[in-house]
Amino acid sequence: ALFSVHGRRYTLGDFFREFKELPEEYRKNVDSYEKKKELVEQLIARELLLEKQGDGSDTGEPRPLLRTRQ
Q1: Rounded CA gap, 39 and 48, in Å?
Q2: Buried (b) or exposed (e) across 5-40, using 16+ Cβ within 10 A?
Q3: Residue among 27, 70, 1 nearest 62 (CA)
Q4: For every one of its 70 residues, what pLDDT tens digit does the chain have, with 9 covering 90 and above?
Q5: Sequence-distant contacts of 33-40: CB under 8 A, at least 24 apart
């Protein structure tokens, strides 16, 4: 697993599957190892916040990691 949050495992495959769905402009800005590492840290922080808020979707399955504004 790339990381886990309270038993939910997120793999490298989960990360890249979601990453590929981001707009190309955004992906171009996350082009180095350090920037990808920062993105993962942001994702972990977001997952912890969502868990703390209790969004009601605790199915045990990973949530989409990256969400874009539509």
Answers
A1: 14
A2: beebebeeebbeebeeebeeeeeeeeeeeeeeeebb
A3: 1
A4: 888 888 888 899 988 888 888 899 988 999 899 998 988 898 888 888 888 887 555 555 555 655 544 4
A5: 39/66, 40/2, 40/3, 40/15
User: Whole-structure pTM over 0.70, yes or no?
Assistant: no
Among all chains, which residue has been given the structure tokens 């769905």?
Answer: 21
User: 48, 5 in Cβ contact below 8 A?
Assistant: yes
* Both structure tokens of 6: 């309270």
